[in-house]
Amino acid sequence: MSHLSAENVSVAFAGLKALSAVDLQITPGRISGLIGPNGAGKTTLVNVLTGFQTPSEGAVKLDGEALIGLKPHQVRRRGIARTFQGGRLFRDLPVVDNLEVTGVGLGMSRRAAIAEAEAMLDWIGIASLSSRIAGTLPYTDERRVAIGRALMGRPAYILLDEPAAGMSGPESKELSALIRRIANDLGCGVLLIEHNVGLVLGLCEHIVVLDSGAIIEEGPPASIRDSEKVRHAYMGTAANTDLPVLEVME
Amino acid sequence: MLQTLFDALSLGSLYALGALGIALIFGVMRLVNFAHGDVIAFCVFALLWPSTDAMAIVFAGQLPWYLLVPFVLLCGAGLSVLCEIVVFRRFRNANPATMMIASFALGFVIRYFLLMLYSSRPKSISLLPALSQPIEIFGARLPLLQLITIVATMAILIGLTLFLRQTRFGLEMRAAAENFSMARMLGVRANRVIMGAFALSGALAGAIALIFGSQTGTVDIQMGASIMLMAFIATVIGGLGSLGGAVLAGFLLGAASVVMQVALPVDARPFRDAFVYGAVILVLLFRPQGLIAARGTKERV
């Protein structure tokens, strides 16, 4: 079966271990979650999976073929897309150009890139934003455009780095529906990195919990919710179990 | 009155084209290219045979205009791209100060190359003499050249805008100018975009060379430096990296110079430039980020 995997990945920055011996697998059509407290190494792992960071040890494999050493755009061309914290759109460019330049970068003709950009915006439900300058968009729209940009060229995998940060309850519900459609309708393998643990528990079939660069727990949402280790990592102390952090969001 | 307006527009055109040439490269490379002025000088000298005589021996300058214009633009684009390949490409990951100093050095290399072939003596040339004849518009007598300068600049600005908006290359360049590393991550071909920016910037230098050369009727190896300074100031006021800002500020500087030339008391006129620079300082005190701040220049992680 087709999959994207990190195998035994370690990353050290100047002697400090950001990731140690992490294994992770993403499969098409499934939503996996990656959670953990600040500084746990979540974004570092995304960077390794997408060619932004070379691991000190271990391998990243797409269907068994090693990806280490490829540049980010080469990884992207193999169908592994990502979003960034805060969106990081080209803020001076119209929304449609943000998607179009991605298509062109993937090797599409300009005409094909425009057509796909329009189709993608329509699919997400933000076709009306097409000619708006990206920098003028409200926060949530900016995130949706960033997701649209990542979906250009129909990648097999999409890694979403904190897509719900700063969103209100109803807004993250809407986002949650979009992520579900990405997996179900487009058949994309999704890795969701989020601080909003409720969102992750509600969406993901499989969740990996990182703390200080190592996996401390993984499994289906129910087992993560009940895990003492996870509570401990989030609360600092196992005693404060009544804090409402691990509530499922539907 | 009309005369003053046309003076302002035509001087502003020169500054705007110069500023645009600098802003284009700053946009994609964060490089303030101080060699730009010397590329302008090179383009004018490319019209002459190498000699040390005071009377220039014209070579390509005798071509009919429809060959002359592409020749000069190509000279500028060619030299500029050569600078990129030979020098700036090696500094791509260097910090902006290093790149700026490299551009100074490169400017000196070009200037001394011209000095070697043509000597430092200013030469007089007559480029497209038909253009210096005056024509009458609304009762004002204007040199045809001034009108052509303004029209050509407008055409260049419109053409460049369409190019950046409507072509694939333009799209890649706009994205790269705003966030080069992100554009690169998305697969935009960095070398092509940067070489394209240098080629455009060089062609703009060629356009300035033609206009300036025909306006002044003299060529001098220092001639690029004065325009370069004003153009650089215009890019700073415009908001470094902002193309629209550079053009706007170029025209404003041109207008400020011409207006002060007219409005200042006669005794103060020799100090016109000091007043212009004073105005620049005032603008920067109130808007240190420039008139139109380019978002791409903000720090990004």
Structure, described:
The complex is a heterodimer of chains A (250) and B (301). Chain A has 250 residues and is of the alpha/beta class. Chain A folds into two domains: 1-79 and 155-250, P-loop containing nucleotide triphosphate hydrolases (Rossmann fold, 3-Layer(aba) Sandwich), CATH 3.40.50.300; 88-154. Chain A is built from nine helices and ten strands. In chain A, strands 6-7-8-3-9-10 form a six-stranded mixed beta sheet, with helices on both faces. In chain A, a hairpin with a 2-residue loop joins strand 1 (4-13) and strand 2 (16-26). In chain A, helix 3 (95-105) packs across helix 4, helix 3 (95-105) packs parallel to helix 5 and helix 4 (110-124) packs across helix 5. Mean pLDDT of chain A is 89; it is low at 237-244. Chain B is mainly alpha-helical and 301 residues long. Chain B has a domain at 10-124 and 145-224. Chain B has helices at residues 2-29, 36-45, 65-86, 96-118, 144-166, 168-178, 180-185, 190-216, 223-238, 243-263, 272-286, and strands spanning 123-124, 134-137, 140-143, 218-219. A two-stranded antiparallel ribbon of chain B has the order 1-4. Chain B has a two-stranded antiparallel ribbon with strand order 2-3. In chain B, a hairpin with a 2-residue loop joins strand 2 and strand 3 (140-143). In chain B, helix 1 runs antiparallel to helix 10, helix 5 crosses helix 6 and helix 9 (223-238) crosses helix 10 (243-263). The chains are: A alpha/beta (250), B mainly alpha (301). Chain A binds chain B through residues 52, 72-73, 76-77, 88, 90-93, 97, 100-102, 104-107, 110, 135, and chain B through 167-168, 171-172, 174-175, 178-179, 182-188, 294-296, 300.
